[in-house]
Amino acid sequence: MAPNPPPPKRYPSACREILVEYSKHVQSIGEVIFELLSEALGLDPDHLKDIGCLEGHTFGCQYYPPCPEPERTLGHVRHRDPDFLTILLQDQIGGLQVLHQDHWIDVPPLEGALIINIGDLLQLISNDKFRSVEHRVLAKSVGPRISLACLFSTHLEPSNRVYGPLKQLLSPQNPPLYEETTILNYLNSYKSVGGLENALSFHKL
Ligand code: OGA
Ligand code: NI
């Protein structure tokens, strides 16, 4: 959807207008969140924006049909998001879980709430100050469940820009934990393990 949205006729007609509208709103929320995250890292509020974290976003629209035997399958396998940040809108069905201290914790739906997930690329540039969260979606006998994930990254715009741990966060006590990489190079690692393992480990120093 950003920075170069496809022509509207490429979207399903049922959600064409609302997606364009939602994209504008989610971009504004993203701006505020990246400002807060920049400040949390002790940086200038515009820092993450200035290095391109807000330059692109794409949508993953997900439809999970009701499943007659939910315990025999999964809605969405465990994974970390391959982006800087994800803003997720889930409906009231539930099933989303995050991994916390080796336990899967339910993220119950809350009307009007958005879920903000740190992605791998933000973990990389923050040198592990922010952690990308592992999550999954359980299959349910009720449904369908519908969710809309907005992934902030420029992976659809091939670029030679390299990302590594931000220099401002490094010191002799805090040496860089990752090598510099382009987004596409990191995505190749992600794809090579099908998102099933921690792709950041391929870029560790
Ligand atoms: C994703 C994701 C969760 C959901 O798209 O990366 O984790 O609730 N979606 O559908
Ligand atoms: Ni995800």
Written overview of the protein:
With 205 residues, this protein is of the alpha+beta class. Helix content is 22%, strand content 24%. The protein is built from four helices and ten strands; from the N terminus they run H-H-E-E-E-E-E-E-H-E-E-E-E-H. The protein has a four-stranded antiparallel sheet with strand order 1-8-3-6. A four-stranded antiparallel sheet has the order 2-7-4-5, with no helix packed on it. Strands 9-10 form a two-stranded antiparallel ribbon. Strand 4 and strand 5 form a beta hairpin. The radius of gyration is 18 Å and the shape is globular. Residues 60, 62, 76, 81, 88, 90, 96, 135, 137, 147, 149 line the site of N-oxalylglycine.
Topology:
Blueprint: H1 16-40, H2 47-50, E1 57-64, E2 74-79, E3 85-90, E4 96-100, E5 103-106, E6 115-118, H3 120-125, E7 135-138, E8 145-152, E9 162-163, E10 181-182, H4 183-192
The structure holds N-oxalylglycine (OGA) and nickel (II) ion.
N-oxalylglycine binds next to strand 1, strand 3, strand 7 and strand 8.
Family: Belongs to the iron/ascorbate-dependent oxidoreductase family.
Protein name: Fe2OG dioxygenase domain-containing protein
InterPro entries: IPNS-like_FE2OG_OXY (IPR044861), IPNS-like_sf (IPR027443), Oxoglu/Fe-dep_dioxygenase_dom (IPR005123)
* Total of domains: 1
Q: How are the strands of the biggest sheet laid out side by side?
A: 1-8-3-6
The oligomeric state is single chain
Mean pLDDT: 95
Distance between the termini: 34 Å
What order do the helices and strands follow? HHEEEEEEHEEEEH
CATH topology, which one?
Jelly Rolls
What CATH first level would be assigned?
Mainly Beta
Number of helices: 4
Domain Fe2OG dioxygenase: 55-155
Protein name: Fe2OG dioxygenase domain-containing protein
Family: Belongs to the iron/ascorbate-dependent oxidoreductase family.
Pfam families: 2OG-FeII_Oxy
